[in-house]
TrEMBL record:
Lineage: Bacteria, Bacillati, Bacillota, Bacilli, Bacillales
Any Pfam family the entry gives: Z1
Putative endonuclease Z1 domain ranges (all copies): 301-517
Protein name: Putative endonuclease Z1 domain-containing protein
């Protein structure tokens, strides 16, 4: 044990019981102990709480329950657990505490209450036990809490109290819609907690969150520190929840997915923007209910449904072959908020179900083709696993046919109208009624309610502005996943939303790295361009996550997903770029390893011309402003004049698409370790680099037969982690 928590006992009744029951691994146990030690040694308040920072669906609850056990063993008598506002979550938390502390509750050592159901005639015998109160972060709940502590049971004021604020990010789902009202309500809630705190003797505060930037995005106007860095509200201390080895998060969906042939590269399926329109409301002209299995404009929705059935069938077949219990699987459709849209989506899914059952019974050609296509898609990723054998098509086909014939599929709408209790099991988790469950819904799905064995996620929430943590909270495909389930998992959304989620993931990852390095004391730089085109600090509150770019040492940026203009249109511009590049190189005074140091003004001029020659495909962007802004920022970071290293290569013959049909995205890395990227990173120490690759653009490679320049911007090694906001909320 490290010296920081040597004075703690680990053999107290509560923790000993939990540790034995759950077999905590050492890193998790140490995280719990460090948190407890710091809660004892540090003065925490609701403004300067201790912070437990985990990842979405990564075992944060398990960790804070361990901390609760330690708290009870070290003189705390009452834990007040503040949860986000849904009854489903309260029910889930209540069930979880009962399950975890079963032994203590049976032996009258602990009482757990939902504050709204707490009796007002508890006896001294009961009050002498340890208490856990679950309190929804909402006015009535807090009033009941205040009444219980100050009036009904005033003795509680003398006990040691630990507040645990679960999902402490204030940016809850509704935040983006009613900003003012929410800030007001948060203040009301904060002031009620504050009033209560004053009446208590030395209470402690622990926040549990998965979104580190909630610390930067505080509703109060914040002080700008030395004109550049925003200081978050300081947690009194921060502990990182260890990530267990089965955790699947954004690094799988957004980083590893870029490696060709990696299991993760098969997960994402692009959905056409027009298909999301179809999901909004019933439109008899667009959707013919009797032609759902063949209609073109719903190809991805159909693919998603069939992939889900085939994926679940593959897994169930594999489990049966290994003599294991066959699991039930789930699939989420989350595209709209409105009840009408949910009702229409339910009708659509039932329509698919009916036609698929008929097709399975008649074994139509169409049915065989659909199953075959899905099998071919899914088996690519199943084949990447050595330990789990891939079943042959005939076996899977039979499994799918049988599953549909026996009605193994069921779909339910999950929204606030529907009484959640009929959808939840005794543990407060979504009930999986049949082997294949499709859930259609809106925000209720993203409030932390656990959904097991999720292998399909059709996501299309396209709010005008993705703000704060909403999107990450929607990432229900994160969590502990067996890798064999991951192999049949697919994630469907538009290219645009996928791009935004990727940016948010990068943002999240960099802020978390800053925490791990202890860098949150230094802060992270937030910048934007103002109207006069100068780079200035911006308030993190005002950032639209959809327009974020995360800059870090040696990060590369390049346009992807484009076609060139027609030869006759761009020929002149390309000649002009050729001349500018030539001139910039000839005038450069400093050269190193085949790179030339040129003024940033010249580089921006070249990029502006390149921008004119490329036509971006839907969902892909090449914002010239953003590139110029980032160049200005990076090149001025080097204290002297603004310069950029320019590297060029000619006669390149890259194809427009990779083998798997995705757009080529790494023209700068031909040959291992010898590519331009390696060179650029070598020279880009104090100054950024721009690689200019002159491509032949041949028709047989998918281009239009016109040569063109493909730029790749590389940040220098010596740059601080920076958030560049291309657009901000004005207000």
């Amino acid at each position: 044990m490290s010296s920081t928590f040597q004075h703690l006992k680990t053999n107290g009744a509560f923790f000993k019981y939990l540790n034995k029951k759950n077999q905590y691994k050492q890193p998790v146990r140490e995280c719990m102990l460090r948190t407890m030690a710091k809660l004892q040694d540090t003065n925490t308040t609701e403004h300067r709480p201790g912070m437990l920072l985990g990842k979405i669906q990564s075992g944060k609850t398990r960790t804070f329950i361990g901390v609760m056990g330690l708290a009870y063993d070290h003189g705390f008598d009452l834990v007040i657990l503040l949860t986000k506002g849904t009854n489903a979550l309260v029910k889930q938390t209540y069930a979880r505490l009962h399950e975890e502390f079963e032994g203590a509750i049976d032996h009258d050592a602990l009482q757990v209450f939902d504050i709204m159901n707490m009796p007002d005639n508890l006896r001294k015998y009961e009050l002498s036990q340890k208490l856990a109160l679950i309190v929804k972060k909402e006015t009535h709940n807090l009033d009941r809490l205040k009444q219980a502590v100050l009036e009904t049971y005033p003795d509680l004021q003398n006990k040691r109290v630990l507040f645990i604020d679960d999902e402490a990010d204030f940016a809850s789902v509704a935040y983006e819609y009613k900003r003012e009202q929410n800030v007001k309500q948060m203040r009301v809630i904060a002031s009620k907690i504050n009033d209560l705190r004053k009446a208590l003797d030395r209470p402690s505060f622990l926040q549990v969150t998965a979104t580190p930037y909630s610390l930067y995005l505080q509703p109060e106007e914040m002080k700008v520190h030395e004109g550049k860095v925003f200081e978050p509200i300081r947690p009194a201390f921060t502990e990182l929840v260890p990530i267990h080895d089965r955790y699947i998060g954004g690094d799988v969906y957004f980083d590893k997915s870029e490696k060709d042939g990696h299991l993760a590269s098969y997960l994402y399926h692009e959905v056409d923007e027009k298909e999301l329109e179809v999901m909004k409301k019933m439109d008899g002209r667009r959707v013919k209910m009797d032609r759902l299995l063949s209609q073109k404009n719903i190809a991805n929705i159909r693919k998603a449904v069939v992939n889900f059935i085939v994926g679940a069938s593959i897994r169930r077949f594999q489990q049966r072959m290994k003599g294991r219990r066959e699991q039930k699987y789930s699939f989420i459709i989350h595209t709209e908020r409105g009840k009408n849209a949910h009702a229409w989506q339910a009708e659509l899914i039932q329509g698919f179900e009916t036609l698929l059952i008929e097709a399975a019974r008649s074994e139509s050609e169409e049915f065989q083709r659909l199953v075959r296509e899905s099998y071919d898609d899914l088996i690519r990723s199943v084949n990447t696993l050595k330990k789990t054998p891939a079943p042959i098509f005939e076996d899977v086909y039979e499994e799918v046919r049988h599953s549909l014939d026996e009605e193994y599929m069921v779909s339910s709408v999950v929204n606030s109208e529907k009484d959640v209790t009929e959808l939840l099991n005794h543990k407060g988790e979504l009930k999986l009624r049949a082997p294949m469950n499709i859930f259609i819904g809106g925000q209720i799905l993203d409030r932390g309610v656990t959904i097991h064995n999720l292998i399909g996620f059709f996501y299309g929430r396209n709010p005008k502005s993705f703000q704060q943590d909403t999107v990450l909270q929607h990432s229900r495909m994160y969590g502990a996943r067996p890798v064999a389930d991951l192999a049949v998992t697919r994630f469907y959304t538009t290219q645009k939303i996928y791009g935004v989620m990727k940016r948010i993931h990068e943002f999240d990852r960099e802020l978390r790295n800053a925490f791990e390095r202890g860098g949150h004391h230094k802060g992270v730089v937030f910048i934007q361009r103002d109207l006069n085109d100068t780079i200035m600090p911006c308030n993190p509150n005002k950032i639209l996550l959809s327009s974020l770019t995360m800059i870090k040492p040696h990060k590369r940026m390049l346009p992807v997903g484009f076609q060139t203009g027609y030869k006759t249109h761009i020929e002149k511009t390309i000649r002009r770029i050729d001349q500018l590049v030539e001139k910039a190189i000839n005038n450069a005074h400093v050269t190193k390893d085949g790179a030339y140091l040129v003024p940033v003004t010249k580089v921006k001029e070249i990029l502006s011309l390149v921008h004119e020659t490329l036509e971006m495909e839907t969902g892909y962007d090449f914002y010239l402003d953003e590139y110029k802004g980032i160049l200005d920022y990076l090149s001025s970071e080097a204290q002297e004049d603004a310069f950029v290293w320019l590297l060029t290569k000619r006669n390149r013959q890259i194809r427009r698409f990779k083998q798997d049909g995705k757009f080529e995205n790494s023209p700068d890395t031909p040959g291992k370790g010898t590519g331009e990227m390696t060179m650029a990173r070598k020279v880009a120490q104090q100054h950024p680099a721009l690689i200019m690759l002159r491509q032949e653009g041949k028709k047989e490679h998918g281009w239009r037969g016109a040569p063109f320049w493909w730029p790749v911007l590389v940040a220098q090694a010596e740059t601080a982690p920076t958030v560049y906001a291309n657009k901000t909320i004005h207000g």
